[in-house]
Structure formats: C-alpha cells, structure tokens
Amino acid sequence: MTRKQKRLSVIVGGLAFLGAATGLTFYALGQKASYFYMPGDLATASLQPGQRIRLGGLVEKGTIQRGQGTTVAFAVTDTQKSVKVTYTGILPDLFREEQGVITEGSFGTDGTFVADSVLAKHDENYMPKEVADSMKAKGIWQESTNE
Amino acid sequence: MVEIGHFALVLALALALVQTTVPLIGARIHNERMMAVGGPVALTGFALTALSFAVLMIAYARSDFSVQTVWENSHSLQPFLFKITGVWGNHEGSMLLWVLILTFFGGLVALFGSNLPPTLKANVLAVQGAIGTAFFLFILITSNPFTRISPAPIEGRDLNPVLQDIGLAVHPPLLYLGYVGFSICFAFSVAALIEGRIDAAWARWVRPWTLVAWVFLTGGIAMGSYWAYYELGWGGFWFWDPVENASFMPWLAGTALLHSAIVMEKRSALKIWTLLLAILTFSLSLLGTFLVRSGVLTSVHAFATDPERGVFILGILLLFIGGSLSLFALRASSLTQGGLFQPISREGALVLNNLFLTTATATVFIGTLYPLFIEAVSGDKISVGAPFFDLTFVPLMIPLLLIVPFGPLLAWKRGDIWAVSQRLMFAFGAALLVALVTGFLIDGSSALAAFGAGLAAWLVFGALTDLAMKAGIGNVPPAAMMRRLAGLPRSVFGTALAHLGLGLTVLGLVGTLCFGTEHILTMKPGQTVEASGKLVRFDGLAEYKGPNFDEERAHFSLLNSANAVIGEIYSAKRLYPVRQTTTTEAGIKTMGFSQLYISIGDYGDDGSLVVRVWWKPFVTLIWGGGLVMMAGGAMSLMDRRLRVGAPSRRRKPVGATPATDAA
To answer: What is the ipTM of this complex?
Structure first.
C-alpha cells in the first residue's frame, strides 16, 4: 500500500468505528430510555405491554398494604387518576402517604404496575424533580413557601 | 471575625485579576519584570484563599450561627468531624474548596516552575488566574459563604444526615483535587496555543500534572462509589447517575490524556491531539461542576426560575470551553506536526486506547445530557440509566480491555504482533483456564460470567507478564532477573500496577454482578436465613442514642454449620430529629474480599421485619482495584524523569547520576 492508501484506510476505519458507536448509541437511546408519566397521562400514552416506564405522583392516602411477606401494594395518584402499584423489596426511608414518589417498571397483564424500583424524595425540602415539575405544570401543587 | 474571610476573598479576586493580565501582557511584550509578577501573586492568592477557607472553617468549628451557611448546614450537637466536613457539605463551601484547590495548583506551578521557559510560565499562570477570577466572581456574586443573618439563630438546622459520614471528609477533597488538577493541563494547553508553539518543556510538564490529577480523581470516584454503597443502603455501587457521570467523564478523558501524553513525550507525536484532549478533559470537569452546582439536575424548572447561579456558571463554561476551542481552531494549524508511525506499534496501541476511551466518554456524555436536552426541547421527561450504558459503554470497554496487555509489550515505532502474542501465551492460557473453571465448575449458566472472569485474569496476568518479560524471564538467571527488575524505571511498574488494578476492578465487578445473591424476606427474632452458604440469624432490636440521632438497631449473628456464633452484624434505622430525616445504616461484614451486606426495611403487619441480605463476592476489589490504580499512578509519578519540579540540571551537583531510560 502507498502512504496515501494507508492513511485513507486508517481514516475510513476510524470513521466506521465512530459510525458504529453512534448507531449503537442512538439505537440504545431509542430502546433503553424510559419515559416518565403521571397517572393522568397514561390514557393518551400508547404503551407497549412490558415497556419500561417511570410512573410518578403522590402515594395515595390509605392505600399502602403491607401484605404477604415483602410485597407492598399502594396507589400512585396525581389527585385526579390513580394507578395501583406492587413492589417487592425495601421501600426507601422517605416513602410515606401523600408524599412524592417515582416508581420504575412496567404494567402487568391485569393493569397493575409492577415496579422494580421505588424512589422517594431526597429530603424534606423537595419532591422528586419530575413529580414536582409535572404537578406544577398542572397547577396541582405549589412550592412550599415556609422556607 | 468572618468578615476577615470575606475580605480575604475579595483581595484574592483582585490578585487573580492581576495574575490574569500582567503576566499575559508581559509575555506578549517580553517584559521580564511583568512576567515575574505571576509567581508571587499566585502564591499570595493561594494564601488569601486559604485564610478565607480557614476563617469559614473556624466559624463552623465554633458553630457561629450568625453565618447563614453555618446555620443551614451545622448543629451544635454534631460531632466535631462533621462540623468541619460540613464546610464543604453545601454549595457555597464546596465552591470555596474548589477555588482553594485551584489557587493551590497555581501556587505549585509558581513554586516548582522555575525551570519552565518564562513566557510559558507567565501564560500558564495567566490562564490559571483567569479561571480563578471567574470562580471568585461566581462565589462573591452568587454564592457568598460569609453572608450574615441577624438576629443570629440559637441553633443550626443540621447537616444533611446522608452527609454525616467520614466519606464527606475524603470524597469531595479528593474529587476536587482531580477535577481542578486538570486545570493545570488546560492552562498549559492554552498557554501553548497563545504562544503558538509546543516546546519540549511543555511535553515534559503535561504528563506529571495529568498523573497527579488522575490519581486524585481515581481516588475520589472510588471513594464516592464506596460511600454510596454503604451509606445509601441499596447495595449498589454505581448508579449511572448524572452526578456520578459528571466525575466519570473527566476520568475517561483524563485516562486517554495520560496515554496520549506518553506518545507525545516519547515520540513527540500526537502533540495537537494531546493538547486538544487536555482542553477537553478540563472542559468536562467544568461541565461536571456546572451539572452539579447549577441545580439543572435537581430541576430544569428550578434552573429556569432561579437562574442566577446556573446562568453565571453556564457563562463561565461557555467562555472557557468556547474560548479555548476557538483558540485551538485558530492556532492548531500553525503548530508543528509530530512524526508518523506504523499502526502496529506502541504508539498505535495507545492511539487505539484513545479512540476507545474518547468514544466511551462521548457515550457517557450523550447519555447524561440527552435527557436534559429532550426536556428542554420537547418537555418530555426521560431517564437514561444502566440499560443504556450496558448497551453502549460496556461493548466499547470489552475490546479495549482485551488489547490492554498488548500495549506495554509492543515496541515503539514498529511492533511485532506475533512475537507479543507468543509472550502473552501464558497469560492467555491462565485466562482461558480461569474462564473454563468459572464456566464449568462454579456456574455454567452464564457465559458472560465465565468471559468476565477470564477477562479479569487476562488483565492481571498480562500486567505480570509485562514485568516478567522486562525483567528478562527465561533469558537470565533468577538473581540477574531480580537485579533487572529492581533497575526498571518506576513508570514501568506504574503501568503494570495500574493495569493490574484495572483487572482487579473487573474481577470485583464480575464477582458482584454475576455471582452475588440477594434475599428479601421478613424475619422475626430467632429466625435464620441462608445466603450463599452463610447462615444469618436475626437476634432482635435494640435502641441506641447517638449525639444527634436516635437509632434502632437490628442485631444479626453469623452462624457456622454447627449453629455457633462466628460473627455479629447490625443494621439500623437512624432518625435525625432536627431534620426529621431517617437514614438506613447498612450492616456490612467483610470476609476476605467478599462482603455480607444487610439492610432493614419496614415492619410487616405481624411485627416481623423486612430484611434484605446480599452476598457480594469480591466486591471490595472494585474499589481495591482503584487503590492499586492510584498506587500505579503514584509510582509512575516517582519516576525520576517525571518528578514534578525536579530541579533543573544546572543546579545539581556535578556527578549526579542521570536518569536511566530502559523503556
């Protein structure tokens, strides 16, 4: 190979590598990024069965059932609609009734949301970001002013 | 009293302005006295920032609640250590730590830079001064840690309980030493662009500074990961959280920089690429600072409604990244190109390393910023987590890890891939054996586990092969081999150690992810659970009162097969009354390199306790490998040729032995 061909092959190889990496990245973004919904958004969302999403809202009052063993059931609400969620495992320290929560998982065949992770707000000062933003957008929740 | 600190900070800003302008103009018009201003000003600036920091620390130590940040982040009953670490456990204080470290590095250049060409030194200090000016302004205008409140409250609001841990004492300072350490490489690159030439001194100086920053950043990330692992109680050590990615991106780019700087130093090739990489690495550090400090991650919404800090730091980001890249675009073509080389050579392997590492950096970059971008553009909220990175980052890392052992064995200029493969036969055989044993004897269900274990062994034995070959194994008698080994440059040991550490980390990851077990169950006192052959008995609950918290401890016993107690573990729920916050304290028992990890949850209706028990084989190697990598970096730094601030030759007494270069 001449010097020019050699250089060309290095450049082509590098570009092919970058192209493959870029393709993989966008494929992964399309497949693996999970969207955030509030219970009220679900009617308009076209979800595939088993598609992973994040469902957020408030833990509805009086719905927490610590049932058999380590499975917990509760309802997530945006004060208008609510969705039943089941979760097996240890709930976060700040999981409480009427507090913001984000659950991640997918819908089961019976319409129950099966969560494999549950996140509560980080501390007393703020809600999970997505929940706070969505509720503010809907005018349901006001930022606390007792700071 | 605290006004002294405030005043010192304003003076430091004024000095930073002098440090930015005077040496820069001096270098332009070749005025030696103006250039010489940089050094003393940088040292005084560091002294003033240190004074300012010390004053804030004293305010925390004395629980002076008339200072707003002390009131917000401290409490008189807090243990003394957490009063001190609370200084940087909040936005204002951590920014002050940031500039303290920045001026510290500036001071180091001033102190040890006597063998630098004066114009280069002047320009480097000027760029450092410019970064300092921007961040001093940021602190004084938007995040003043010395703001007073009147009347002074009697009691403080306590430090965030999650931060009340020894981890806060170690993690942020290490991380910032790494982040900010790359500012030196950045300053050197911009100075070279201003001068329009890359001279030999530049090449010699960039590598040790990169090594220093890299060693600290490695430690900071490893420490942060271990801290999250034991403090958050989820048993996870890496969450691909944007805050973690913010520190991981400079690390990946910095690792690439470390390797390309070797090519530049040895072969004076890849000069322009190294310069660009140095700019990008610090830009990613700045980006990390922006992501963590602007509030953009907590809420895009909050960022839009309270934009002062965010916009200011975004401005700094654009100014320095945009400015340096524009300068690069203007000047890079005038810099002298380095030499060419064959693709199969040490240089070629290092280029391949750079290709993989920078692409991996880009995937982390996209995964971190894409959700912010989508939310800003369409309002959709998406999250990009482990599944994305498993599909993009991991496939990029595997081929990189496969070629790591080849690199150090290849010759410069023109390597012989077959000869190197022959030398690696032993390492390959050992790795294959490990993979087969893992696959057939331990767990045949997962081909990935077997491959992962083999990969880890390949890295470890590959690193050892490198040392053995350089010591002349098989060619010389053992005694001569030992002599040769002792005579090898420290940087050879550094490389081998760092690659060995990488292998250990991979081993820890494979052990934990592929062979770890998890049990979630409800337990009543007296009940036992078996986790991977370890018998754990729940003994009961007990109350404990800490200095500023109340704790409910669940005691567990570790039993042997004869039901005799061989160890005790407790996991706890802690309530911090001031903030009304509960934290989970995980119970961890280390056995060899493996750990038994227990965290507790709520009570069931019948009074039983929800318990989560993990068995994590080899988990400590994940961070232990990081420590070995740090040791490798430190070893490399001790190499005589690289010693930071080694006195220039003319000041050495005659007869000093010149450094040997056997590599």
So the answer is: 0.79
